[in-house]
Amino acid sequence: MAVMVENFRSFEAGPDPSGRTWQIRFLWQQNGISIRHADTVDVKFELCCAGRQEQKVIALAHPDLLRLAEQLGRPLTDPWVSRLAATHLRRMIETGQDMEKTLVAPSFDELTAL
Q1: DSSP single-letter state for residue 42
Q2: 3-state class of 105 per DSSP?
């Protein structure tokens, strides 16, 4: 199980497979239904490293979030969802998985591992 990112608003992640450390800044969280007609909670981050900037949206399926919150016996809150998304992003950076994508939708199993 991964250690959750506590300060999802601003944190470092890495090293990535190339040995770089990234600075991450939370931009926003919003319901995906309002922007993409998807039953997700979208969390957007800005990533910076060595003069390079990019943005990633972590799209967390709402049914998966409800199921995970129920399994853990915890309320589904905005800060918890943002920490889940930040933790998934950190894992992406460390492994290089899905880094070519702008919009990433982790599976239920990936969320459970967080």
Answers
A1: E
A2: coil
Strands 10-13 and 103-104: unpaired
Taking CA atoms, 83 is separated from 18, 39, 91, 114, in Å, by 25, 19, 12, 10
* Domains of the chain by residue range: 10-113
Taking residue 7's Cβ as centre, other Cβ atoms within 10 Å add up to: 10
53-69 residue pLDDT tens: 999 999 999 999 999 99
Q: Cα separation of 72 and 57, whole Å? A: 24
Residue type (1 letter), 66: L
Q: Which residue has the higher pLDDT, 104 or 4?
A: 104
Relative to beta strand 10-13, strand 22-31 is: antiparallel
